[in-house]
């Protein structure tokens, strides 16, 4: 199974908790997963097999809820190729 890119944005809603602290809980799950990832101001992008990334995304969502978010809005963006890897490097290396 080829690697894909999955962009994940979780927008937590809470009347009492800091939204950034809640988002940090999702990023902790992603960081501890071992997959390649990049945090941007609007989303976190991961690279790896689709099934693995979707599992990580679901755990990240649950971490935000478990941390006290009353609800979350979740936005996914996927870049998938037929029988070929998608890498973050190919998209951004020319900007470094």
Automatic annotation (TrEMBL):
The family database entries (SUPFAM superfamilies) matched by this protein are listed as: MTH1187/YkoF-like (SSF89957)
Specify the Thiamine-binding protein domain's residue ranges: 8-95
- Pfam families in alphabetical order: Thiamine_BP
In terms of domain of life, where is this protein from?
A: Bacteria
Gene3D superfamilies documented for this protein: 3.30.70.930
Q: Which InterPro entries match?
A: MTH1187/YkoF-like, Thiamine_BP, UPF0045_domain
Annotated membrane-spanning segments are none
Protein family per UniProt: Belongs to the UPF0045 family.
Q: What is this protein called?
A: MTH1187 family thiamine-binding protein
Source species: Negadavirga shengliensis
Please spell out the taxonomic lineage of the organism that makes this protein.
Answer: Bacteria, Pseudomonadati, Bacteroidota, Cytophagia, Cytophagales
